[in-house]
Amino acid sequence: MSTELQELLDSNRQWAAETETREPGFFSRLLKQQTPQYLWIGCADSRVPANELVNLLPGELFVHRNVANVVVHSDLNCLSVMQFAVDQLKVRHIIVVGHSNCGGVKAALMDSRVGLVDNWLRHVQDVRHLHQDWLDGLPAEQRVNALCELNVLEQARNACHTTVVRDAWVRGQEVVVHGWVYGLHNGLLEDLQITADRAESVDPAYRRALARVKQRYAH
């Protein structure tokens, strides 16, 4: 096993050279400022690389990732990212993105004990408990992905209820919150259609999106 990770350094140099050849002056322009229009709040899973999935270059997507794409009001890390993105970078869209077959969601569903992260996954278990009766009525093989989607809806709603987003809406700033899910099996993103651009639209958007999820799994 390499102790120097030279292969990664070599790959970085190759990428930088190819990027500069393809777009001369790219890095010097990037150095001056970043002006992303999107904040991506996603899972830390290595199979879900945010920029690559939407084919955006560095500087075009502001990213926060954690286990199971959780947004909670006590997480100062996530809230600080949101605050900087909204207040300083003026992003126009916040996208909470989950993915199919999420290991964190699976652990929360199965009550698996995996270590310190169990405490973090209590937030996902709260989502499970909220929808327990409906989840119990699904075939066992569908429950993980169903909970992945339910978790996106709940975390997107949480994002809408943060002081960061609420304050932006009060002052008339354009910020739209979305909830998406990524399919590991096909590489495609799906809009779960929980889309809110003001406080009054949050609960109706959540209810409609929840009904769509449940209707889809009914077939």
Write the layout of secondary structure elements.
Blueprint: H1 6-22, H2 26-32, E1 38-43, H3 50-53, E2 61-66, H4 76-88, E3 93-99, H5 103-110, H6 117-120, H7 122-130, H8 132-136, H9 143-161, H10 163-170, E4 176-182, E5 189-191, H11 199-217
Parallel strand pairs: 1-2, 1-3, 3-4
Antiparallel strand pairs: 4-5
Helix pairs in contact: 5-7, 9-11
Would you kindly provide a written description of the structure presented here, covering whatever features stand out?
The chain has a five-stranded mixed beta sheet with strand order 2-1-3-4-5. The chain has helices at 6-22, 26-32, 50-53, 76-88, 103-110, 117-120, 122-130, 132-136, 143-161, 163-170, 199-217, and strands at residues 38-43, 61-66, 93-99, 176-182, 189-191. 52% of the residues lie in helices and 13% in strands. It is globular and about 55 Å long. With 219 residues, it is of the alpha/beta class. It contains eleven helices and five strands; from the N terminus they run ααβαβαβααααααββα. It has two domains: 1-32, no CATH class; 34-217, Beta-carbonic Anhydrase, Chain A (3-Layer(aba) Sandwich). InterPro entries: Carbonic_anhydrase, Carbonic_anhydrase_CS, Carbonic_anhydrase_sf. Zn(2+) binds at residues 43, 45, 99, 102. GO terms for molecular function: carbonate dehydratase activity; zinc ion binding.
Q: What is the H-and-E element order?
A: HHEHEHEHHHHHHEEH
Structural class: alpha/beta
Task: Bin the helical content.
Answer: 40-55%
Uncertain residue segments: none
CATH homologous superfamily designation of the largest domain: Carbonic anhydrase
Spatial strand sequence of the major β-sheet: 2-1-3-4-5
Output the CATH class name of the largest domain: Alpha Beta
- End-to-end separation: 48 Å
Determine Rg (CA atoms, Å).
Answer: 19 Å
Number of helices: 11
